[in-house]
């Protein structure tokens, strides 16, 4: 597998008069966990299908595993790809183990691996059950199990934690990190921005089919200036004094809480956090600092339809 397993060069995809993806260029490195986010209709699913070779590009080129997805050689690369769609659907009359054996045959993986993968995703005791008896979370676990079959080099995950409880989500990311540590490249899309913001290495924000932003979370914070938030608990009688002391600072907004007179809510440029805390230190009892979240950045870049969970 090439050191740059996914390369998109000026890729566009149109459906009639609708431009779903417009001039997207990105290179995703080996072993990277890469996040793809955007509001509904931003082009995420289309971009996924382009990278999977399920759709041809209208313009530009898509290379995955060093091979153009439009070439006959890409069939071999596909065997090294694990893909979990947003909704995992299979044959309800089959057992979980039978479903995995079917995918093992399709991937050219030995069937003996199926039991081990079921155990990894927490379904070791449910392999004999028919799929129609599975809950949504169990179906999602089974879908992830088929992704892991054969230790794929490339993993594509579309809303992978749908239906999972918090314990299941935590376990899912443990397995994902293990795959990444083996060198797998992972592309993940999710509407649950708080879940992925500290887990992905880089992010691409799509807006109306175009790249609105690309980089690490720290880089995106630097590109799109958003204020930091300080929640201060001050000694009795000092909140109003603090507001007066900070009033001259450019870009600083102080809000006092009528129900909690010793609390001050401060919005400020990141560079002023330390000076403000130094100034308030004699009266300060406690402080909570909140940096702009991925959701804040997403909304700032134009993703006005982000869902929160």
Account of the 3D structure:
The protein is α/β, with parallel strands linked by helices and 309 residues long. The protein has 2 domains: 6-222, 3-Layer(aba) Sandwich (Rossmann fold), CATH 3.40.50; 227-291, Alpha-Beta Plaits (2-Layer Sandwich). The protein is built from 11 helices and 14 strands. The protein has helices at residues 44-51, 74-78, 96-107, 113-120, 136-148, 166-181, 193-196, 217-223, 239-246, 273-280, 294-300, and strands at 6-15, 18-28, 33-37, 59-64, 67-68, 81-84, 154-158, 185-189, 202-207, 210-215, 228-234, 253-256, 263-268, 284-290. α4 packs across α5 (136-148). The protein starts with 5 loop residues before the first strand and ends in a 9-residue tail after the last helix.
Descriptive terms for the model:
globular, 6-stranded mixed sheet, single chain, Alpha-Beta Plaits, 11 helices, 31% helix, 14 strands, 2 domains, 4-stranded antiparallel sheet, disordered C terminus, alpha/beta, 309 residues, Rossmann fold
